[in-house]
């Protein structure tokens, strides 16, 4: 009942010869470090060396001219485009590290997990774009459902962003009469967006705040920011 296992043959290039003709049918087997190193060196050399028909000799002076031309075009593009749009694209690719947790101002708050320099985009206020009529209907419905806070942000006279049930961490930002951020409306591809900018340098674990700028009303909403120049009310 004992069968002698066939000896593992090697090809001329040093790699293992598969007896069955298929590597998958032989199951898992350990590759010798020398063979693995030889294979890696061969594949790396093949990847680094371009095909003979694609090798083109480039003049160093021509390459320098091309690089300077690219820099000139990039500088002209940067100067002609809106800086807010460029910053917004950077915000999409490099999001700030933020977290929400209990705040000493009110309920939940948004905190920085990394240092944020002044005049930087912190986060976009994301939600559903609705009209004023829909906003009034939803506000009454939220009161009937027992939702204490509604997260509606006015963009202009006709558009409001509702982040009550569909939003991101930006809806947890609390109000402060002495804030470290401010809100700004920018236009990206003919669509208005609300972005929170840093007003000053923000340290790690510092709470993100901005001024809500509520309109003045008879029924006052108390302010709990605790800053030295606190107005006492949000509206």
From TrEMBL:
Question: Does the entry feature the keyword Coiled coil, yes or no?
Answer: no
* SET domain residues: 96-213
Q: Which CDD domains match?
A: SET_SETD1
A GO term for molecular function: RNA binding
**SUPFAM superfamilies given in the database record:** SET domain (SSF82199)
The answer on whether this UniProt entry bears the keyword Glycosyltransferase reads no
Would you kindly state one Gene Ontology biological process term found in this protein's UniProt entry?
methylation
Q: In this protein, which residues make up the domain named Post-SET?
A: 219-235
Source domain of life is Eukaryota
> Mainly localized where?
nucleus
Q: What keywords would UniProt list here?
A: Chromatin regulator, Methyltransferase, Nucleus, RNA-binding, S-adenosyl-L-methionine, Transcription, Transcription regulation, Transferase
CC terms in the record's Gene Ontology section: Set1C/COMPASS complex
Q: Where in the cell is it found?
A: Nucleus
Mind telling me which Pfam families this protein's record contains? N-SET (PF11764), SET (PF00856)
Q: What is this protein called?
A: SET1B methyltransferase
Native species:
Pluvianellus socialis (Magellanic plover)
